[in-house]
Design a protein that fits this description.
2 copies of one chain form a homodimer. Chain A is of the alpha/beta class. Chain A has helices at about 5-20, 20-30, 30-45, 60-90, 110-120, 130-140, 155-160, 205-215, 230-240, 250, 285-295, and strands at about 50, 60, 95-100, 125-130, 145-150, 160-175, 195-200, 220-225, 245, 260-265, 270-275. The first copy, chain A, is about 40% helix and about 20% strand. The interface between A and B is large, with 44 and 42 residues. Chain A binds a DNA duplex through helix 3.
DNA sequence: GTCATCTTATCGGTTTTTCCGATCAGCCCC
DNA sequence: GGGGCTGATCGGAAAAACCGATAAGATGAC
């Protein structure tokens, strides 16, 4: 009496379907005695007689009839479970939760997601918009599976994996009549400017990169104001508060009346867009998505 | 590779729930090695890695996570299946299809059915109204499980079981001014009467019993008319077509203006109401219903 | 880096279970 | 009443599940 097993159910269904132990045994390629014993085991386990063997053709009892339906359900359920596991392992079934942030991913991102959705119709895709710091936290505690984010900072860089997709060059945002409003600007020329910054909580990578660049150029920037959205920063520049440094990819969507956007001369004047994930929680679905992103040249 | 078994699922769920092979093994009272082997078997059967064992705490892979849900469903389904079989065996779950016929069962029948329904709420009761000959056929081919019917005739009496519930005495239905309209009538006094009969197809038992009684009394009845419903027969008697012989239990509901109902003197002047079933297809539910009927004194 | 301590995997050997083949008893039809 | 079915039962063989010991790997304290 070691508990009911699927083998019991397989045998039981066969006996019911083929209308007898001998017939079923032939179909199953087992001996009639083995079948007989297994069914007897099952019946004693249940404490229920499943077959009426008194007549020539073995026939189900009333409880047997009901149990047959349940047994069929279980067996097909078992097949389904196996299928689920295999589909999931092959990356054709499951879920992927993606973190992104505005200003990070561009218009190509939805197109890539759409392509992934089409090639993996049985994978549920959950998109979560969150700022980079929250993305890292979400990756760490498993709330999301992959993030399109800024370069990882400690401690997250210790246990998360990341891959640079794109380098967004930084541009100086200057009033049109500004004396430095030329093609390329050397950041060292901006040492006495007044700066409108993005709040550090909103975009620490940009803020820190900016500080770093100035530091390398030998000065500490005078910050006269901060804002939380790109358009507000631009508005402040238009109003003459000061100048700003913004990543190139955000500029297209911004108003540019009265402004000039100038690339910075410094080679490292750029911030990275990376995709990051937890190496402990890799899955085939995740790898498929990564592969798609890589094949698209990382252009998200 | 002998196929997935419920044991594999039980072990798998335990390992997932207790977060490790060793912990699960302690809870299951099996050795860690046994558990390890079984899970390895399962994984190779599926062709899917279910756990990530690289870290201290064993953790599910993405396919493992999905498979866990399926495994839980299957295990609780297995429990449910066992429950279904046991409930059915104890007569607390299932279906019973009952055949009856008007004129056979009386006003107490619905009350008894109602009582059975209350004591067996999970048993589906299907009531089928059909004339006795059809009841027997339905019993024979398993369309119904029990019938409240007339005494079985060959060939059905050979393989169906029956039990007499009630004897309905036969009454002579006479016009009020009939010379024999007294308390008790001897059938021999009716030898020269004209008879209104129930059509044999409608009620062969009554018809045959009537013929039998007359035959025993030494005459063959003159049948002047037949009808298919009791009220029509009575109407014909009221109209002076002849006299009739009807079972007592039908008389209450019939119009009796201008008529007298007289019991017959003959001891065997009665027809039986029986319950019949197929002994090959007995079930606990069936036996419970029979028991209820018997405890009610067969008064249906 | 090393040790202590946890983890799971692997290996013989034992126990348990399943399976087989033969045989027996019951039912049905001829 | 035999011949041909049925399923049940038996002893022995094959397969499996299981165990205990041990190895290999990861983690965390020092």
């Amino acid at each position: 009496m070691t508990g009911m097993e699927l083998r019991h159910l397989r045998y039981f269904v066969a006996v019911a379907d083929y209308g007898g132990f001998s017939r079923a045994a032939r179909r199953l390629y087992v001996s009639q005695s083995a079948l007989s014993e297994q069914i007897a085991d099952l019946e004693s386990e249940l404490g229920v007689q499943l077959f009426d063997r008194s007549r020539l053709r073995t026939v189900l009892t009333a409880p047997g009839e009901l149990f047959l339906k349940e047994a069929r359900k279980l067996l097909s359920g078992a097949d389904a479970a196996i299928k689920v596991a295999r589909l999931s392992a092959s990356g054709d079934l499951g879920e992927i939760r993606i973190g992104f942030f505005t200003g990070g991913v561009g218009p190509n991102f939805p197109r890539l997601i759409q392509r992934f959705r089409q090639s993996h119709p049985r994978v549920h895709i959950a998109l979560h918009e969150m700022i980079p710091a929250l993305q890292w936290k979400a990756l760490a505690d498993g709330t999301i599976d992959i993030a399109f984010t800024r370069r990882l900072e400690v401690p997250y860089s210790n246990f998360l994996t990341s891959e640079v997709l794109r380098k967004d060059p930084l541009y100086a945002v200057l009033p049109k009549n500004h004396p430095l409003a030329r093609d390329v600007v050397d950041i060292r020329a901006l040492s006495h400017e007044r700066f409108v910054m993005c709040a550090r909580e909103t975009s620490p990578s940009l803020f820190d990169k900016m500080i770093e660049l100035c530091s390398e150029a030998g000065f500490s920037p005078e910050i006269v104001n901060t804002a939380n959205v790109w358009s507000s920063i631009v508005l402040l520049v238009q109003a003459g508060e000061g100048i700003a440094i913004l990543p190139a990819n955000t500029l297209q969507e911004l108003p540019k009346t009265g402004l000039v956007f100038c690339p910075l001369k410094q080679k490292n004047a750029s911030i990275d867009l990376v995709m990051a994930w937890s190496p402990d929680r890799e899955s085939t679905v995740l790898r498929h998505l990564q592969q798609l992103i890589r094949e698209a040249g990382g252009k998200v």
